[in-house]
Amino acid sequence: MRLPVFKYYPDPIGTGAIEKTNEECECCEKYRGYRATSTIYAIDEVETICPWCIFDGSAAAKFDGEFSSSHSLLSDAIAMDIVKEVCERTPSFISWQQERWLSHCNDACEFHGNAEKSDLEELSGEDLNEFLSSEYISTDMWPSVLQSYVKGGGFAVYKFMCRGCGKNRFYTDCD
Predict the structure, then answer these.
(1) pLDDT digits (tens, 9 = 90+) for 103-141
(2) Is the pLDDT score of 175 beyond 70?
(3) Which of 40, 51, 134, 139 could serve as a FRET partner for 84 with CA atoms 20 to 30 Å apart?
(4) How confident is the model over 154-164, as a mean pLDDT?
(5) CB neighbour class for 34 (10 Å; exposed up to 12, middle 13-18, buried from 19)
């Protein structure tokens, strides 16, 4: 069985957002062999949703919920059809605090998981200044932040890629 392809989340298995399971999907009531590891923000507590029910929007409709907060995309004035695709038809990712879905070039970015240390070492010039400013990291602190960064650690840096220009974007999160 082939998994759906998510426009804004190219590798949900590789990042751990989708995993194998023997559990029944609470939306379609089928045993599909896969489930999202993050939950849906809804009134009902829902534990197991298959990728197909996320992809076609049936889980968001059935449980009247979202997989990601729409706030950051709406704040960036992203078109509502894109916001709905990201929040209602794309699996989310597990973060320490409330996740933020980044945007660029008037579109939502693709989520690529935790940044590699090499991704951060490549940041320079205007891109580095923009990142530091948006994350409230002082230029003086950056070398020590970079030196101590461990992918998947308590200080997380999430990597997104602009679908328009290919630019990488990042944001931080702490436990």
Answers:
(1) 999 999 999 999 999 999 999 999 999 999 988 999 999
(2) no
(3) 134
(4) 93
(5) buried
Q: Is the pLDDT of residue 94 over 80?
A: no
The whole-model pTM stands at 0.91
- Radius of gyration over every alpha carbon of the chain, rounded to an integer in angstroms: 17
Contact indicator for 143, 137 with CB cutoff of 8 Å: no
* 38 vs 20: CA distance, rounded Å: 13
Alpha-helical (H) ranges within 31-160 are 51-55, 58-63, 71-75, 80-88, 117-121, 125-134, 142-148
DSSP 116: P
What's the rounded Cα separation, in Å, for the pair 50 and 60?
12
DSSP 3: P
Task: Return d(Cα 45, Cα 78) in angstroms, integer.
Answer: 29
Q: Which residue has the tokens 């197991």?
A: 48
- The better pLDDT of the pair 172, 51 is held by 51
Residue 111 three-state SS? strand
Dihedral sign for Cα 11, 115, 73, 104, please. Answer: negative
